[in-house]
Amino acid sequence: MAGNSRDPGRSVTARALSVLTAFDIDHVRLTLTAIARRAEIPLATAHRLVRELEMWGALQRDGDGRYAIGLRLWEIGLLAPVNSRLREVALPHMQELCRHTHDNVHLAVRSGLEVVYVEKLTTPRAVPIISRSGGRLPLHSTGVGKVLLAHAPTTVVHEYCERGLDRHTAYTITEPGRLGRELQSVRSRGFAQANEEMTLGNCSVAVPVHDGGGSVVAAIGVVAHSARADVGKLVKALLPAAEGIRQRLVELDRTELDLLSR
What we know:
It comes from Saccharopolyspora kobensis. One of its GO terms (molecular function) is DNA binding. This is Transcriptional regulator, IclR family. One of its GO terms (biological process) is negative regulation of DNA-templated transcription. There is one protein chain. α1 packs across α2 (about 30-40), α5 runs antiparallel to α9 (about 230-260) and α6 packs across α8 (about 175-190). It is globular and about 60 Å long. The chain has two domains: about 10-75, Arc Repressor Mutant, subunit A, CATH 1.10.10.10; about 80-260, GAF domain (Beta-Lactamase, 2-Layer Sandwich). The chain has helices at about 10-20, 30-40, 45-55, 70-75, 80-100, 145-150, 155-160, 175-190, 230-260; strands at about 60, 65-70, 105-110, 115-120, 135, 190-195, 200-210, 215-225. The chain contains nine helices and eight strands. The strands form two sheets. Strands 5-4-3-8-7-6 form a six-stranded antiparallel beta sheet. Strands 1-2 form a two-stranded antiparallel ribbon.
């Protein structure tokens, strides 16, 4: 069903989703006018959709009249398998890594052509980083991203390179051929490293997380200060954590199969 919109071919669902995606990390509170502008829909349409979304709980209105994402949408997001299963399984291993390294620890998955950070743990001694839980960063300039890209289908790698490799620092790999060789190295040695390729002064090291069938379902990594990062020690700490997550995922799969067979 299409309605009044700057794009008459857009459905009501598409316009409602455009209202929700008008919010991001840089725009967490918006006026109705700003929502209409960012969603590219007429103000009257935005008013109607925002009112319905607010009544349902997907949006909430502050005292100054600005809107933010509502609690009910957050509650539904927690039901996603990547949160309710993968994150819960990985969290104890991430906490142990954090205690052992005193650095930032990430759990990430690939969503299309980006890294999505499922969870991030940090300590007072850890270096400042730009990542956040639920945030997205490039694949080619982060340790977890390189792991995920190295184990992605060839078509995904080609599409990613054809889109262009943005330079974030002077050390970012921006040549497709060089990135291809780097990804091959990641697959052969079993870990990825990004040294000051996303943020100057930071080094990230990551390893793949496999499921019971051997597929890479996530990446777990540590971000430390490049001047004191010992890549060998970080890999040595990361590998058993990734294996522990894999074993627990296998156990859960077996339990689910047992329940289904009864």
